[in-house]
Design a protein that fits this description.
The protein is mainly alpha-helical. It has one domain. About 70% of the residues lie in helices and about 0% in strands. It is built from eight helices and no strands. Helix 3 runs antiparallel to helix 4, helix 4 crosses helix 5 and helix 7 packs across helix 8. The protein is globular, with a radius of gyration of 17 Å.
Amino acid sequence: MANLIPIFIASILIHNVALYYLLGMCPFVSLARSLKTSFGMGVAVVFVVILTAAINWPIYYLILVPFKCEFLSFIVFIVVIASSVQLVEMIMEKFFPALQAAFGIFLPLITVNCTVLGVSLFMQSRAYNYITTIVFAAGSAIGFWLAIVLVAAIYEKLEIVGDVPKGLKGPGIIMLITGIIAMAFLGFSGIASV
């Protein structure tokens, strides 16, 4: 239990999937222009990452490994991710239609978001147990949410008060903000490791 806290903290800050591994950059850069949209996308990613990790661990370790079918893990993980995203999409369509419309194509693209698949692959390659997998998935998802919300908040503030050079407007300034936040998060390196 004692090593779960460092894994959780490291996956949020130091080994942040968006800032350290640069996973999920397509929706990250596209949706980090609006705080409201990035907040909703972050929440959807948190739900999908935790749900898929919780489902993928038993499938991998209780079905694929005993039957020597580990080579099917990519396909199985993608199917579980696609099903989870479909569930999120149905829930958002029912309860948050405006937010779903704001996501546009990016909500279905969570299916192929490297962040979601990456967490399951890290779980597999690092041989985490079930509880560690859930803690790592929660930390990674919260880290993605924190990163996209921070970038969106700074971006919105720069749009209001900043004088961003023409060549940096849009994705350029978002990547610059992301790089600065990534360097700031690396300052926590002495705290914990994955």
